[in-house]
Write a structure and sequence with these properties.
alpha/beta, about 15% strand, about 300 residues, globular, Rossmann fold, 9-stranded mixed sheet, 10 helices
Length: about 300
């Protein structure tokens, strides 16, 4: 098994596939084993690396509390171990937070950046504080997570949408009580998540950026993605018909992300505000602007 010995922890990673180099950063509490189906889809297009976060999966427990800087440091350790001077980076949810911290800390290591269902923290707004749910009884916690994952997810909706019902079952299965070590790992990650704040540093990201959000996401509402896009020059903002798991609900998302990460060159062609893009997707104004400022004029906004 491939492991990386970092400064504080030993990280388990896997590398597979061929194509552009892509580092994948998973969501909160999610391991490689939890997400093999999704990872296999990306591995069919990229030279693909994923790893288990510190304290989770096959990676070792950290010696004490840590923050987002340490999480980004782990990602850099993985890049160093596989010999990549720079790579495309895809972060989902918590992984999007790590990806932002990585991109503002070491911008030269990120060629293209895709951020899905995440938040900037600070004045830009934070994702729902999932750590506050940890003290709830499991059944109650799963019920709250169901509604947060997609604000449409009531009994009537799920009865008529079997695919979404399967997603809820997946969430419930992941919430099953882990062993004590994994439980400590999840708690440590949720604590680090509370400190996430890259808002003031986001303008330092100069690589092409793809920001994706789900219209019905209660964990990372669309306004948070709009906030991120407003701070990164030339960022593309895509809104999909789904919730926090829109990557599984909106088939177009996977196509869009793979296409974006596979492009060459520093920047893609931008359409003038209000005009159709060259890909035929209708460009629209942001209906939910960033909390402290409107989206920058260079931000490309799309509805899928």
């Amino acid at each position: 098994m491939p492991f990386i010995q970092g400064k504080e922890v030993r990280l388990y990673y896997e590398r597979t596939g061929q194509g552009p180099q892509l580092l994948f950063l998973n969501g909160s509490g999610v391991t490689i084993d939890d997400s093999r189906l999704l990872l296999s889809l990306f591995a069919s297009h990229f030279d693909f690396v994923a790893y288990d976060y510190r304290g989770l999966g096959k990676s070792s427990e950290p010696p004490g509390p840590y923050g987002m800087a340490e999480c980004a440091g782990d990602a850099l350790s993985v890049l160093d171990a596989v010999g990549w001077k720079a790579a495309c980076v895809l972060g989902i949810s918590f992984g999007g937070m790590v990806a932002q911290e990585l991109a503002v800390t070491a911008p030269g290591r990120v060629r293209r950046l895709a951020l899905l269902c995440t938040s900037p923290g600070g004045k830009g707004g934070s994702s729902y504080p999932l750590d506050e749910l940890e003290s709830l009884p499991r059944d109650e916690r799963v019920g709250v997570l169901r509604q947060l994952a997609d604000t449409r997810f009531d009994d009537q909706w799920l009865a008529s949408h079997p695919q979404d019902h399967r997603l809820v079952e997946l969430l419930a299965g992941r919430d099953a009580a882990p062993d004590p070590g994994q439980q400590r790992g999840r708690a440590g990650q949720l604590a680090a998540r509370r400190s996430h704040d890259v808002w003031d540093r986001l303008p330092s990201i100069t690589c092409p950026a793809f920001i994706g959000c789900g219209r019905f996401d209660g964990i990372a509402p669309p306004r948070l993605s709009a906030a991120i896009a407003s701070r990164i020059p030339g960022a593309e903002l895509h809104t999909y018909e789904g919730g926090h798991l829109f990557i599984a609900q909106a088939p177009r998302c996977m196509t869009d992300v793979v296409s974006f990460l596979s492009r060459d060159g520093p920047m893609t062609e931008r359409s003038p505000p209000g005009r159709p893009s060259s890909r035929g997707t209708r460009a629209v104004r942001a209906t939910q602007p960033a909390p402290t400022e409107a989206p920058a004029s260079g931000t490309h906004l799309q509805e899928e």
